[in-house]
Specification:
The structure is a homodimer of 209-residue chains. With 209 residues, chain A is of the alpha/beta class. The first copy, chain A, has nine helices and nine strands. Chain A has a seven-stranded mixed sheet, sandwiched between helices. A two-stranded antiparallel sheet of chain A has the order 1-2. In chain A, strand 7, helix 8 and strand 8 form a beta-alpha-beta unit. In chain A, helix 2 crosses helix 3. Chain A starts with 6 loop residues before the first helix and ends in a 6-residue tail after the last helix. The interface between A and B is large, with 69 and 69 residues.
Chain lengths: 209, 209
């Protein structure tokens, strides 16, 4: 399986995985493509096409084996290869992400949080310690941290981003509404909540008030 | 301007808007497509193509007028048409979104929060009151709320979603890692953080540990 999956396909495969997890909890053995399609309000042929990309075929009339398909998705989406990240900014959003237990199931391990607020440093969130941001450069290696999740307020985003780059961070998952100016060897993934929201309202027919 | 903009284009236009806002803060009058492209580490022709969709042309050698282009983007992305929403689940994520001041600039108004925790109901977050979730059905009309942002824990997601639908909510911006089962006249927009993260790691070359 060396085909490149588009971002949209990866997005849908993750949702299929979530549905399969629910089915396993409910101890249901088989699932059909129309069942998946119905839950997501998408077209059945889309589901079949996506799953065919995994070189997996369902059984006539009963559909896909839930456990098999789930494992295959986990393999395709590389859940087994652990990616370690730190959270920078222990405000509400940083705390929410630190508490997001589902991350670990997807191969995503949050090793620590960083903040500049002395009331927060030294505390723990969901078993993860909050360190002073000043210590970051000394700790990136210890935590094997090349991915930083940036959840600081907008006005500090660029300044903190510079500091992350100087500390050896190579990937920034940016939850701030800022476009960060980083060197070419650093990759930024903009979460861009506003963009996601606007896709919803502009393209998917949310009426305004 | 009645062309349909794809989700990817909307996403990029929002990032361009963010860059333009920074330029206005810095009182810079013109911006060129290579400047935008450099900041986003994307191709210059992509930027020019996106902006051409708005029927806007830059001036030779100086580029685009920052203020004009920003207003045009706001018009295209319908920032002026106010969309009211409620937040359901006043945990860390709900609080973070309630405090996200940038939403209002994009035409997105959070009118209230709802939670079932008596320690939270009656309090205020960023000027928005937290109500008991049981009051939702009585308040949807008062708050003109047809959009709900769902930020409850995974295990309550489906149950609360049913309650939202019964209370008249028509659009759910789903931040839980659950696929919600809703009637056909209700639209769900899955924020799917895991899917976004996996796009980053699977397709954009984050090495595993």
């Amino acid at each position: 399986m060396n085909k490149i999956l588009t971002d949209k396909v990866i997005n849908r495969l993750t949702l299929y995985h979530s549905i399969l997890s629910d089915y396993i909890e409910k101890e249901i053995e088989y699932i059909s493509s129309p069942q998946i399609a119905d839950l997501l309000h998408i077209d059945n042929t889309q589901v079949r096409k996506d799953i065919a990309l995994l070189n997996y075929r369902g059984k006539c009339k009963v559909g896909y084996k839930v456990k098999e398909l789930k494992l295959l998705l986990e393999d395709t989406l590389k859940f087994k290869s652990v990616k370690t990240a730190i959270i920078v900014g222990a405000g509400n959003l940083g705390m929410a992400l630190a508490k997001y237990d589902n991350f670990e199931a997807y191969g995503f391990k949050i090793s620590a949080l960083f903040d500049n607020n002395p009331e927060k440093t030294g505390t723990e969130v969901n078993g993860k310690k909050v360190f002073d941001i000043k210590e970051l450069a000394n700790l990136t290696e210890k935590f094997n941290a090349r991915i930083a999740i940036l959840t600081v307020p907008r006005k500090y985003a660029q300044e903190v981003s510079n500091f992350l780059v100087d500390s050896g961070i190579k990937y920034i998952w940016n939850f701030t509404p800022c476009v960060l100016n980083v060197p070419n060897d650093v990759q930024v993934w903009n979460e861009n909540l506003i963009g996601n929201f606007l896709q919803f309202t502009v393209n998917h027919g949310v009426d305004s008030d």
